[in-house]
User: Fold this.
Amino acid sequence: MRIANLSGRLALIVDGRAVDVEEASDGRFAADPQAVYERWEEFRRWAAQARPPEGVPVDPALLGAPAPAPRQIVAAGLNYRDHAAESGFALPDTMPPVFTKFATSITGPVTEVVLPPGGHTDWEIELVVVIGVRAHRVSAETAWDHVAGLTVGQDISERITQLEGPSPQFSLGKSFPGFAPTGPWLVTPDAFDDPDDLGLRCTVNGEEVQKGRTSDLIFSVSELLARLSSVIPLLPGDLVFTGTPAGVGLGRDPQRWLAPGDELVSTIEGIGELRQRFVAQT
Ligand code: ZN
Assistant:
């Protein structure tokens, strides 16, 4: 199953077309895309037997974030060996470094992003997990039962703010407006042959800069959720950014940063793509 946020309304994607959920359910489920995660199991049961009317074509420019107002956004750093190496950090052993992307940075999949003046703005494609059932102290074996679905995310990062000062400022450097595009929709785990082995790729102006597979995660989705939920309860509708593979601008020689006019396209196999165009601050 795929669900989307089309013009701020929850939509079911059927054969590539969008069906308005509030209308198709006669008001049983609200139009608010964030509200569905509070009733995720009930919604899944309804969607499985629903006979929705034919939908409307999806204009990517009208898509919003599939979970636009989570209570928590949890992001893992250094979760791929090759990226930890290019960043010059040791590999995490029991818990990856964890930070947040503040909620005001969330957007939908097709956007224009203002570059912070004087910054070193970088890309990080990531698989993003959306929580469907509250997860507190869950085991890795049962962790997937708490997942509503998967979406594509970009953990856009301004490296000067992130790394300057006596202690790194991961959360702040990764939370400028528009720095957390997600989408194009949410895909439920059962829709994948293997949700633990998805290809990720991102390009800048058509040139491939990152390519990896989620099977190379140091902490897989289930391990990550188990470890995070040993400390914090993960709530319905929360986002978990799972980390990025190698190929970010910080790790290149010479280093490379996003510039006005650049276009970043981020794709995950079986989900879809994000498309960001960068502009100078005026
Ligand atoms: Zn990241």
